[in-house]
Structure formats: C-alpha cells, structure tokens
Amino acid sequence: MIDIEAALPIVDSASVPAVSAATMAEVDRLAVDEFGIDLLQMMEQAGSHLAELVRLELGGDLRGRRVIVAAGPGNNGGGGLAAARHLANRGASVRVVLARPVNRLSAAGHHQIATLLQMAVECCVAIYDVSDAELEEELAGADGAVDAILGYRAAGEPRGEARLLVERLAGAGAPVISLDLPSGIDPDTGDAAGIAVCAAATLTLALPKTGLLSPSGREHAGKAYLADIGLPAALYRRLEIEPGVPFAAGRIVRLRLPA
Description:
CATH topology: Rossmann fold
CATH superfamily: YjeF N-terminal domain
Radius of gyration: 17 Å
Number of helices: 9
Structural class: alpha/beta
Distance between the termini: 28 Å
Strand order of the largest sheet: 1-9-8-7-6-5-2-3-4
C-alpha cells in the first residue's frame, strides 16, 4: 500500500491564489483564445492526473479494482472520460455512467467517449441503460467512484439527469474522488443549495476555487489536491494574478486547507 501522505508534496493553500468561477472562466478563455492551449490539451492533463490520484487513493495498484466514473455532459464530464481511459490503462475495471445520452455530450465529450468505445470500456447512460437500483448496487460493490458530473460553471441545485447521479454518489459506500469541485457545491461559496457529493478527495485544477476554502466546501471536498494543467504564469498575470510556483515539487500537490 502506498502512503499517499509521503507520495505527494504538500502546499499551504494560503500560498496559492484562489479564484472565483468568473475568473476561472476568463482563465480558460485566455488559454484557448490567446495562448493556443486547446480544451482537449487541458482535458488530457486533468484526466491523467485524476487517474493518478485515484490510483494513489485506492492504495497504489488498480489491477482488479472496480471504478465507476460518473460523467456529466460538459467539460468536467469530458475530464472524467479522459480519466476513465487512463484508469483502464492502469488495469482498473472501469464502468462509465453518463448523465445524458452520448448525442447530448459536448464536442470534447464526444471525442473522449469515442476512444472509450473503441477500447471496449463499459459505458452506459443513467436512467436509460441502468436503473436507479442497479446503480446503487454498482456503487456499493465498487472500490472507488469518480465524480465528474458538474464543474465550476454549474450554478444552483443540481437539476435533471445530473441530479440523479449526484444523489447516487452522495450516498455511495465507495470512496468518491471529485474532479475540480464536489458536484452540487457552489464554486464561489462552497455552499450546497440541495444535494451535493461529499468526496473523500477532490482534485481541483490549475488554481483552487474559492468555494473549496470555505467551511462547507472543505466538508464536502475531503482531502484537497491541486493539479497542474499546463497554464503559464504569463496567462494569470494578464488577470493580475500572481500564481507563484505551486507545482515546483510535483504536478499534483496536496493542499493544506485552513483549520
């Protein structure tokens, strides 16, 4: 078993600027429009790092481990789908559960699911392909679950098909690792308007979202980690943000949150 405390460097959250959802949206826009870093590049980095964190959280060896990846229709879901590929490559038995049918995924999500289907990774759509009871049973028997349902652009209480997956993960017996934010919490305040995932660990991307640092955010996030998705300091400085060098010791770091 890997000692995850020893495997990853620790960075004090006070040394890293936290950003609002609006600021992060502008960071993403600048990355694509002015710095030539496209969405699939960032998604690949996110998915690879998320799979690595799942590996560490589940003890260091994914061979024979059952992992459920719950993916929403947006870019957060696309990151989860990229992670599903990396998890399968590391030996995990992966089942992807989509919140919406494939034809309602983002363009980046379509790109990711096409690869998974070629790999024969098991993919299904909640409600349409798997009943609520079956999904509960799957989660009860899994070694871990990935929450890639809602990203930082989501506002308010989870709705529609996404709500079902959030509800199931909120009650999952398996440890849940959330991508960027636990689904259902507000990215700016960390408050939950309704049902929300309580993760064992959360891998936030690029910079922490302000909601993760609030008492409610910390309660829902579990252990907080930060992953490098390759955005340059020059990009942040366009927005008068001084990012420091949080990834000097590694591309995934543990965030020491305020008590």
